[in-house]
Amino acid sequence: MLDQIKGLHHVTSMAKDARQNNAFFTGTLGLRRVKKTVNFDAPDVYHLYYGDETGTPGSVMTYFPFPNIGKGRSGVGEVGSTVYSVPEGSLGYWESRLAERKVAGLKREESFGEKRLRFEGPDGDGFALAEAKGDARAPWSGSGVPADEAIRGFHSATLRLKDGGATGELLKFMGYEEVDTSGNIKRLAVKNGNGADFIDIETSPGAPFADLGAGSVHHIAFAVENRARQLEVRKALMDTGYQVTPVIDRDYFWAIYFRTPGGVLFEVSTNEPGFDRDEDTAHLGEALKLPKQHAHLRPYLEKHLQPLGD
């Protein structure tokens, strides 16, 4: 069993409208946009990152807003919901805030003994806020959300699968342990993590397979401290039979990717070098940053990318 993985690093999803996406995460949820850059493979499309003050691993939601993308269809073989951690007693505040902003899908619930508020993102994305005990992570304080209610980072993510057995074994190999079961959902946790420590596996044998589109999670990333730890994970996965990509430089972290037995795309990302490698912390996410191979496109991109309205 591996011990290098320290919880979630980021979750990357698809969206249709960049301005709407930016307004939701920075305005409605009160997160900080820590990077405004472009998709490595489609530079005419933004890659937007939202998190805490510095984009700490375990706090960052990222989006590819494709203007002409169709709506995704939920099903198995995907990340069904991404859950944020908020302080105990704060769900009343959030329920009022989200209702005032006409956020869809609001529903109070309880899961594994924790109070939750389920809601949808602008494209029908599945989210929830969970009241977590003892989460000492500092929130981003530059938004209009009071610090006593603000999001601390990720709590967990739910994998919706037709059969969770093989993916559960993979996660155990990656250092997770099964800690609880509720109906058709198994909860796994990583020890000594970064706060974003839980993965829930929801098994739905009769559900159709998901169809990727706006509102869908493209991939989910797990955090390792550095490149040396990442190479150890890569070798262990390949020795076990997984087809893992070479290490890819994503400017703000190094990444490897592989497909899980349940169909979900996993990434393992380094905590280094971080989002302040090309911007001062005080000004993260303000300027358009381009990968060096796309630097020559700046005049075109600055003219054609949708203004974010901030």
TrEMBL record:
Residues 7-132, 153-271 form the VOC domain. SUPFAM superfamilies: Glyoxalase/Bleomycin resistance protein/Dihydroxybiphenyl dioxygenase. InterPro entries: cNMP-bd_dom, Extradiol_RC_dioxygenase, Glyas_Bleomycin-R_OHBP_Dase, Glyas_Fos-R_dOase_dom, VOC_core. It holds the Pfam family Glyoxalase. Gene3D superfamilies: 2,3-Dihydroxybiphenyl 1,2-Dioxygenase, domain 1. Residues 77-122 form the Cyclic nucleotide-binding domain. This is Glyoxalase family protein.
